[in-house]
Amino acid sequence: MSLTKFKKKFWTILPNFFIVVGLLLFSVAIIPYLRDEVWYFLKQHKGQEFVLGGRGQRDSVFARYLSVKPILVEPVNKQFGIVIEKIGVNAPIMADVAVSDELAYKESLKYGVAHANTSSYPSSQPGNVYLFAHSSLNFWDLGKYAQVFNLLRKLEAGDRIHIFYEGKDFEYRVVNKEIYKGFNTYALTRPVIESLLTLQTCDPPGTTLNRLVITAKLI
């Protein structure tokens, strides 16, 4: 093959190569998100429950996708952790993360949900416990907990959220769900007169277009 023909063939193949690579990368990125959606759909269809402190089978791929029996939830961290039975969240919480330090909070989010250093700790006293985490697609860059809040938008008023702190279980009930445009800090800085929990993540997952904010009250 002449050099001219080779160059012509090369420049013909190259765009197709990049298209294929792009589609493969997109598929790899979207699979965890689709996996969560499929799991949630099956869970709702089967009527399967996650049971905190009750009886049930151990969490596994088989239990989540094939079984209809309740799944027993054992908090991964009772010193500071979060459990949301409805959407299968069970993660440690990294305390006192600076929301203004991008490198610091990105590193913290590799190991769990982040607790804003300017917010309160779980307590019966008035305060705002502000937690934030990824709902992202690029898990290879952001770590094990990159998709921990992928299903956060499924929460509705009345749903339960458990925050474990220093061995105690603080149970909250969802009262509000809002979408804020861009980097809006109101949910973090708002004045409060009761014990609140605020959960925040990006929306839609994998973008920085909006902030999804869930507000819950301590029971």
TrEMBL record:
Transmembrane segments annotated in the record for this chain: 12-34
Keyword line: Hydrolase, Membrane, Transmembrane, Transmembrane helix
Keyword Cytoplasm: no
Pfam families referenced in this protein's UniProt entry, alphabetically: Sortase (PF04203)
SUPFAM superfamilies listed in its UniProt record: Sortase
UniProt GO molecular function: hydrolase activity
InterPro entries assigned to the protein according to its UniProt record, in alphabetical order: Sortase (IPR005754), Sortase_dom-sf (IPR023365)
Name this protein carries in UniProt: Sortase
Protein species of origin: candidate division WWE3 bacterium CG08_land_8_20_14_0_20_41_10
